[in-house]
Amino acid sequence: MTILRRISRQIVKNSRKYSSEKSSPEPKYPTRVFSGIQPTGSIHLGNYLGAISQWVQLQNQNKDLILSIVDLHSITLPHEPKKLSRNILELTATLLACGIDPNKAILFQQSKVSAHAELCWCLGCISTMARLAHLPQYKEKSENLKNIPLGLFVYPVLQAADILSYKATHIPVGEDQVQQIQLCQELARIFNGRFGETFPIPRSLITSSEYGRVRSLRDPSKKMSKSDPDEKSRICMTDMPDTIARNIKKAVTDFTSEVTFDPVNRPGVSNLISIHSFVSGKSVNDICQEVQGIDTGKYKFVVADAVISYVKPIQEKIGHYLNDVGYLYGVLEEGNAKAAQIANVTLKEVHEKLGMTVEGRKRDDIVAKCV
Ligand code: TYM
């Protein structure tokens, strides 16, 4: 079975779950899909295979889909302001080039919907420092920092606020986000338990083990990551053909020259086969049969050619969108307004549940009692 077909099957399976939820007598929360991505530079094949390709499929199945460019998350570590504003536009162009359609999905900039930061505060008040300090991503990112920014510590609470602001039920992400989604589930449960039913308990959607964790080309025990200082560890959607060819050529494999798919014992070459399978639409088995007789060194050229052909039309579209910055601003502005409308309703409800609303009759009652 091709990997693309596997993704489709998974998504069909998920859609069945959605439709059975929908056909239950009175679904408490309508299906809503939410996800986010940081504007921290060009997206890589991990982001694309693990998250964005899933978003496009869900969008094309007409799911209620909300996607956020999470700029507030991207300032948790030191950053350059000029680079950030450029990255926001580039990411918008890239998501459109990858197939996100602003007429079908809401695409917006997180910092322009202030409800996220406000809900983050409310959820922060029911989070504990011990729980947040326990999260692996926090441990990893703070490991070599002398002075740890508070934002880095609170990051997962903001992520929970992103999700809960929209009462999202499904979160398509890569495997590295699972612990953050679990924290979000816990916070939703705590809030519901203390203040009354308010939030659905969202579920993460992960395509498959290969795509949920695309591996670093330099160290297959790690995930492909934007923050890896070694640029040869990843393939970015905007990489030139010679960079793609060089990085794949330098990918760490092992001492066996045959091309076989064995993610546990041969993670390096299996990672290349997974990427190849995705971009070519061929199954892992077909690929292994096809390349029988050639060694991993030569196979890398085959993978590089397939990746270069796959990203070329996406790169052309990115260039096209970046030539029309006015259009990109327009897409975000429209998305910001739509997102704010939804998130503000949730925030109002949260304020009411927390006892922070003093208006209308309630206010008159309170004033009457006070005098
Ligand atoms: P970010 O920007 O690091 O990554 C965006 C998406 O890409 C996935 N991903 C991968 N998938 C497979 N293999 C990889 N090597 C790989 N690297 C990254 C990520 O899992 C993610 O789905 N905290 C989030 C952004 C966020 C968010 C949210 C996500 C903020 N609020 C609410 C979902 C819901 C992040 O830093 O993603």
Task: Describe it.
Helix 3 (81-97) packs across helix 13, helix 4 packs parallel to helix 14 and helix 10 (241-249) packs antiparallel against helix 13. This protein has two domains: 33-212 and 325-360, HUPs (Rossmann fold); 231-322, Tyrosyl-Transfer RNA Synthetase (Orthogonal Bundle), CATH 1.10.240.10. The strands form two sheets. Strands 1-2-3 form a three-stranded parallel beta sheet. It has a two-stranded parallel sheet with strand order 4-5. With 371 residues, the protein is mainly alpha-helical. It is elongated, with a radius of gyration of 22 Å. The chain is 57% helix and 5% strand. Bound molecules: tryptophanyl-5'AMP (TYM). Residues 34-38, 46-47, 50-51, 70, 73, 159, 162-163, 171, 173-174, 176-177, 212-214, 223-225 line the site of tryptophanyl-5'AMP (TYM).
Largest β sheet strand count, sense and barrel closure? 3 strands, parallel
Output the radius of gyration. Answer: 22 Å
Oligomer: single chain
Mean of pLDDT? 91
- Residue stretches low in confidence (pLDDT < 50, at least 5 long) are 11-26
So, CATH architecture of the largest domain?
3-Layer(aba) Sandwich
* CATH fold topology of the largest domain: Rossmann fold
> What is the CATH superfamily classification of the largest domain?
HUPs
Beta-strand content estimate? 5-15%
Q: Fraction of residues in helices? A: 55-70%
Tally of helical segments: 15
Q: Write down the secondary-structure element order.
A: HEHEHEHHHHEHEHHHHHHH
What's the CATH class of the largest domain, please? Alpha Beta
Unique bound compounds: tryptophanyl-5'AMP
